[in-house]
Amino acid sequence: MRKINIFDTTLRDGEQSAGVNLNFTEKLEIARQLERLNVDIIEAGFPAASKGDFASVAEIAREIKGCSVTGLARSVLTDIDAAWEALKHGAEPRLHLFIATSPIHRIHKLKQTKEEVIETAVRTVQYAAAKFPVIQWSAEDACRTELDFLAEIVEEVIKAGAKVINIPDTVGYISPQEYGNIFTYLREHVPSINKIELSAHCHDDLGMSIANSLAAVSAGASQVEGTINGIGERAGNAALEEFAVALHIRKDFYEAETRMNLKEISRTSSLVSKLTGMAVPANKAVVGRNAFAHESGIHQDGVLKEKTTYEIISPELVGLQNNTMVLGKHSGRHAFRNRLNEIGLSVPENEINHLFTVFKELADRKKEMTDDDLAAIILEEKLSKEQQYYRLDSIQVQYGTNQVPTATVTLSGCQNERIQEASTGSGSIEALYNTLEKCMDETASLLDYRIQSVGAGRDALAQVYVKLVFGGIETSGRGLAQDVLEASAKAYINAVNRVLYMEETKKIAVTG
Ligand SMILES: [Zn+2]
């Protein structure tokens, strides 16, 4: 069996999804879960992009030791320096260096000739090789690059010190057969090809990212890149959980496997979905809510008689469990701590007491406490430590069928000042959001509002997701509470806090 390395870019390419911006704590939480999932490489961000990116890449490199941590850099020396500063404390510092190679990008974006692109690529790889033990080099828009030129530049960067060569389908344009042909061509035309690993990076614009990744594996790629739930620019990246399960189920055909701990897939998927606010479609392969539901009578009958009649993947394989009641108000501190360990939530010992109090308060009001509830409240508590420009003190909303809905809100502002406003709207949420807008004295337009219960039951926690444009910046936010209105207010404030944090640590745009 060949081993295929999994390169996860949820925190870099995935975070480039429209409206997604993860904060420091959220990125760290995802990185820890990716380590449990046992991916081989985590691309933690783009250190030169912003102060915020730098800090989170540095912290992830320091903390995560079970896999290699990498960061993206353009082919400029200052990007490489920033990446080194962020990654140097990692277990195996690895640089992901890229330059565009296609004629479209060379002519319109870089305004460089083929020779100039090769010269820049070689010079920057050599510069980076003096610092980093491992350099991955990517030919941006490789799939629309002339094959002979691609082979030429790949040979040159290998000679300059690159250890992994990535062939990204940056725009999601290639078909499986063509993509496989590129790998075959490179293996036949690049003299030094046996010294390096070949990597596939596919986007899903035409719905072919998984098929393309598998075609690359058949043609000799030994690394596949992608994101959890397939999030990413435009239609997203190859979904790593789909790729890993496809390879596992069809190892008879591909004769290759990953080191991924498949049992962590379900938990990883729901964590990423929760923190990014990007819902997983019910019919999505491997992780969708309906992925294992057999609806037709004929299928149900078959599965009851013999599972394999209609079931090729078992829910247990990806760690899907029945979410039963696990803790209640009589559960003690010991049971609480044990359960957190069992479901893989890392909580420092000095925070257990505080979290146990939060748990008890909720358990008094809510009969059943499931793993989902625990995960939701723990995450919420951890995240409440993030930079908060506005904090919710109280809300009061009046609604009656023949009355004008009115909301009163009290917030604490950046300098701990007390802000109180009241406003009306044609519904409760509108009244609430009009009031919040007045409190913050900045126009916000709501793009999306979604409410979801955490688990089942009338007393379930409410999780609200919003997408809004605040001060010209699109962002998302989420809020958790037992009451839907309080959760709605928290989601709005969370989104605004993210914009204010982003403005403090300005970002530059990147592709790749
Ligand atoms: Zn990409």
Automatic annotation (TrEMBL):
One record GO biological process: L-leucine biosynthetic process
Q: Which UniProt keywords apply?
A: Amino-acid biosynthesis, Branched-chain amino acid biosynthesis, Cytoplasm, Leucine biosynthesis, Manganese, Metal-binding, Transferase
The protein's matches in Pfam families, at most eight in alphabetical order, are given as: HCS_D2 (PF22617), HMGL-like (PF00682), LeuA_dimer (PF08502)
A single Gene Ontology CC annotation of this entry is: cytoplasm
Q: Does the record bear Transferase in its keywords?
A: yes
Q: Where does Mn(2+) bind?
A: 13, 201, 203, 237
Tell me where on the tree of life, at the top rank, the source sits: Bacteria
Which pathway does it serve? Amino-acid biosynthesis; L-leucine biosynthesis; L-leucine from 3-methyl-2-oxobutanoate: step 1/4
Region (Regulatory domain) residue spans: 391-512
GO molecular function terms listed in the Swiss-Prot or TrEMBL record: 2-isopropylmalate synthase activity; acetyl-CoA C-acetyltransferase activity; manganese ion binding
Q: What is its EC number?
A: 2.3.3.13
Q: Which SMART domains match?
A: LeuA_dimer
Where in the numbering of this chain does the Pyruvate carboxyltransferase domain appear? Answer: 4-266
Family, according to the entry, reads as follows:
Belongs to the alpha-IPM synthase/homocitrate synthase family. LeuA type 1 subfamily.
Q: What does this protein do?
A: Catalyzes the condensation of the acetyl group of acetyl-CoA with 3-methyl-2-oxobutanoate (2-ketoisovalerate) to form 3-carboxy-3-hydroxy-4-methylpentanoate (2-isopropylmalate).
Please identify the protein, giving its name as recorded: 2-isopropylmalate synthase
The scientific name of the source species is Mesobacillus subterraneus
Whichever gene encodes this chain, its name is leuA
